[in-house]
Amino acid sequence: MEVYAPMALQLVCTFFIVISWIAVGLRVWVRHFILHSFGRDDWAMLLTQIGLTIWYPSQMTAIHYGAGRHMWNLSDRNATIALALIYFNEISYFFVSVLVKTALCLFLLRIAKERIHILILKNLMYGNIVVGGAFFFVLTFQCWPIASFWNIDPISAQDCVPPSVIVGLFYGMSALNIVADWTIGTLPFFMLRGLQIPLRQKRIVQGILAFAAIGSSATVIRTPYLAGLADSYSGRGGDFTYKIGGILLWTCVELSVGIIAGSVVTLRPMIRAMFDRFGGSYTDRGCDDDFRYRTQ
């Protein structure tokens, strides 16, 4: 585990960041060059991807210096650098998480017709921003001075919020994320009932949107690892760099899956254009105008 865990972390995160960039790139191409209707949800998703991309090298560097490895196997310098980067990853996670859910809600608001669906999406989006912002503030200033977080001397923990509070906050945020993911994943099943598109087309769109809820599975799997946050600011007195490994892995999966699912669902016009270009037949073309134009 000591040898292969860091490599596994890097490979998994690199795979997902590449796939997410492909998905977002195709989304930008479809919305800007095919539909000529680049909207707020597209800007939000692009900003989310940029945020994830900024987060990615920080995570890779943290792994290089010791994240995923036992604290007692790290030099003082490497342990300090790894802890500083882990701190940055913690606070940036909430920023990217809020953005990806905002982008998904903005997309669904394009096709929402009923007042109840619009209210649910707006409350979910604004509530997510407020709660995420509050968590971001607490985590940013969990230690004062902030540098106490990556001080390998356990005495520095006296300058920080008790680790039990941080663990509780992460458990609470994880629960809220699961609720938000499943709301975003299941609401389209009700929203698309009123659109005049074939049943097969509805199932495809609903399935892709529900895929975003899989991100909550990563959140669920990550939950047992959150207990490792109790070693925050324990320095040489704990094994925080090792215990954070599972959290970093599943955080990367959670954020990337949300971006990928939210982008893939916008690619139907590209598929239609490909069939036209290569002489194929795109079934039910004339029946999905309602969905096509409402998502432009």
Lay out the secondary structure.
Elements: H1 4-34, H2 40-65, H3 76-111, H4 115-140, H5 163-191, H6 199-211, H7 214-222, H8 240-243, H9 245-264, H10 268-277, H11 289-294
Helix pairs in contact: 1-2, 1-9, 2-3, 2-9, 3-4, 3-5, 3-9, 4-5, 5-6, 5-7, 6-9, 7-9
Subcellular location: Membrane
InterPro entries: Rhodopsin_dom_fungi (IPR049326), SAT4-like (IPR052337)
Main location: membrane
Q: In the residues, how many domains can be counted?
A: 1
Percentage of β-strand residues: under 5%
Low-confidence stretches: 284-293
Q: In the CATH hierarchy, what is the class?
A: Mainly Alpha
According to CATH, what is the topology? Rhopdopsin 7-helix transmembrane proteins
Helical stretch tally: 11
Number of strands: 0
Q: State mean pLDDT (0 to 100 scale).
A: 82
CATH architecture classification name: Up-down Bundle
What would you call the shape?
A: elongated
The CA-CA distance between the termini, in Å, is 48 Å
Largest sheet: none
Q: Helix and strand string, N-terminal first? A: HHHHHHHHHHH
Give a written overview of the molecule:
This protein has 296 residues and is mostly helical. It has a single domain (4-294), classed as Rhopdopsin 7-helix transmembrane proteins, CATH 1.20.1070. Helix content is 71%, strand content 0%. Mean pLDDT is 82; it is low at 284-293. InterPro entries: Rhodopsin_dom_fungi (IPR049326), SAT4-like (IPR052337). Belongs to the SAT4 family. It is found in: Membrane. The chain crosses the membrane at residues 6-30, 91-112, 124-147, 167-192, 204-227, 247-267. This is Rhodopsin domain-containing protein.
